[in-house]
Design goal:
Low-confidence stretches: none
Structural class: alpha+beta
Cofactor: FAD
Protein name: FAD-binding domain-containing protein
Distance between the termini: 26 Å
Domain FAD-binding: 2-341
Bound molecules: flavin-adenine dinucleotide
Pfam families: FAD_binding_3
GO molecular function, one term: oxidoreductase activity, acting on paired donors, with incorporation or reduction of molecular oxygen, NAD(P)H as one donor, and incorporation of one atom of oxygen
Number of domains: 3
CATH topology of the largest domain: FAD/NAD(P)-binding domain
CATH architecture of the largest domain: 3-Layer(bba) Sandwich
């Protein structure tokens, strides 16, 4: 019997599995397909997701297979004018990953799978979830394992099985929203001659039609995306058909497609659940919310669902209060609702306007949980003038100097201290002694003038001397206390202990 059974080895399930496994939780992850899925699919990784990858130990692999800040050019074929979409985002001391990264989804999943293997977890392929029943302590799933019906029991079950989620259906959770059959995107991986790989290019006819070709880093392919007219009957497996769409939309005939690989038809679906949980069963990723690909939000939101739920399940399995799990839906459901609205607006902009606006909200660095019961600030409201607030993402800070008597000084960043499954206590004060708790893994960083010689840490947090900041394992600020710090930290952790 595993601690957690995860259904679905897409990005959400893999992110959850990594987050749990690094905390020593036993994970069983099943996948209906017989092998990892091919295809570029979600190719946009947002800066906040890159920070998650930094924490989970896969950032180097992901960066090596992707390209940051790829320029996007849009040509209006009616007027033959080209302009660049969006503005470049440069890293800052508090935001080391400022721009989106383009990388095929199968590469991202490959990075997760390699990390999981390091953590001793392998995906069980060709195992299809059918149904479940649960008691007060256990959930038992019936599965088809290589064609044979079996049961798997676990303390918790998480459905990360995509938009058509069988776990969601088995739990009786409705998927509320709309499907727009008329809004369809053809997406295909192709080889391209006659176009350089320096930029993502789009052609628009000014009447709502567009076609795009984005070079896929670490491959020789491009991802082609085009919006189909409502009466178009697409032939997804025909290269001449797709070439015809490109020629007609781009008004060019010197760009030659070949070697059609993965292709798919996407229909506009805007749906989400009203609850992320039924007893011992949770939903994450597309199983809980689906939205247009515009703005590259879907996969990122699913990964961050898994990351949010992962540390909470691990803490509860190690003895924290089960009430902690209620905060998963409270924190993540409003994020999904915001993403549904943002991505739908961006898709409508893409369809209806000549200028495609990129919105800084798509970077997801502003995602936070200020109204969560896990976000606490003991300062008087009028004193909360620092740079950061409880519930914000914890900003990074470079130039931290660690000196020991026995070796040369080492320079590192705050994210180096945060990496791992622990809480981090930043003490801008003398010292706070935290009483041990069975579920608690905590590291304390004393912010001295020697450590923060560059001043980036104090600048990023903007707090006066005497303050403490408690950072959660998922890199969000749980507590800021300015006075009575010892008692504030103990009271915060006592509540998590239940
Ligand atoms: C054309 C297109 C472009 C996109 N572009 C972007 C983008 O640029 N950026 C972005 O962020 N998102 C994008 N998305 C969305 C993105 O692909 C999804 O949001 C993402 O894959 C969802 O991840 P997931 O893990 O929740 O679900 P999935 O990736 O769907 O994974 C679910 C897994 O569960 C498995 N499964 C299903 N049923 C069962 C069962 N009964 N038993 C066992 N296993 C099961 C499936 O086989 C699958 O592997 C795009 C989507 C499309 C279609």
């Amino acid at each position: 019997m595993a601690d957690v059974l995860i259904v679905g080895a897409g990005p959400a399930g893999l992110a959850l599995a990594c987050t749990l496994a690094r905390s020593g939780v036993s994970v069983h992850i099943i996948e209906a397909q017989t092998a990892p899925a091919p295809g570029s699919r979600a190719k946009g990784l947002q800066p906040r997701t890159l920070e998650v990858f930094d924490d989970l130990g896969i950032i180097e692999t992901v960066l090596s297979h992707g390209r940051l800040a790829i320029p996007i050019y849009s040509t209006d074929t009616a007027t033959d004018t080209t302009h660049r979409i969006g503005k470049p985002h440069e890293p800052t001391p508090s935001t080391p990953y400022a721009a989106s990264l383009v990388s095929p989804q199968w590469r991202t999943e490959g990075a997760f799978l390699a990390r999981l293997a390091e953590l001793g977890v392998t995906v069980s392929y060709n195992v299809k979830f059918l149904s479940f029943h649960q008691s007060e302590t256990t959930v038992t799933a019936t599965v088809l394992d290589n064609g044979e019906e079996k049961t798997i029991s676990a303390s918790w079950l998480v459905g990360c099985d995509g938009g058509h989620s069988s776990v969601r259906r088995a739990a009786g959770i409705p998927f509320l929203g709309e499907t727009f059959e008329d809004v369809r995107l053809l997406v295909a991986d192709v080889h391209v001659e006659g176009l350089d790989r320096e930029a993502w290019r789009m052609w628009r006819d000014g009447k709502g039609g567009f076609i795009g070709l984005c070079p896929l880093p670490s491959t020789e392919e491009f991802q082609l995306q085009t919006l189909l007219l409502p009466d178009e009957r697409p032939d997804l497996s025909s290269l001449p058909y797709i070439q015809g769409l490109l020629n007609a939309q781009s008004k060019r005939n010197d760009i030659i497609l070949s070697q059609l690989g993965w292709s798919s038809l996407w229909r506009e679906n805007v749906r989400m659940v009203a609850t992320y949980r039924s007893g011992r069963v949770f939903l994450a990723g597309d199983a809980a919310h689906v939205h247009p690909p515009a703005g590259g939000q879907g996969m990122n939101t699913g990964i961050q669902d898994g990351y949010n739920l992962g540390w909470k399940l691990a803490a509860v399995l190690h003895g924290a209060s089960p009430a902690l799990l209620d905060t998963y839906e409270k924190e993540r459901l409003p994020v999904a609702a915001g993403v549904l609205s943002l991505s739908t607006t961006l898709l409508n902009d893409t369809i209806s306007t000549v200028t495609i606006a990129r919105d800084d909200r798509t970077l997801q660095l502003g995602v936070g949980y200020p109204t969560s019961s896990l976000s606490r600030d003991t300062r008087e409201v009028h004193l909360r003038q620092g740079t950061v607030q409880a519930g914000n993402r914890a900003p990074d800070a470079p130039g931290l100097v660690i000196s020991t008597q026995s070796s040369d000084a080492t320079v590192c960043r705050l994210f180096d201290f945060l990496r791992g499954d622990h809480f981090t206590l930043l003490c801008f004060t003398e010292t706070v002694d935290v009483a041990p708790r069975p579920w608690l893994h905590i590291k304390t960083v004393h912010v001295t003038d020697e450590l923060d010689a560059s001043g980036h840490l104090r600048a990023a947090y903007g707090l006066s001397d005497g303050a403490v900041v408690l950072i959660r394992p998922d890199g969000y600020i749980g507590l800021i206390a300015q006075e009575g710090c010892q008692a504030a930290v103990e009271s915060y952790l006592d509540e998590l202990s239940g």
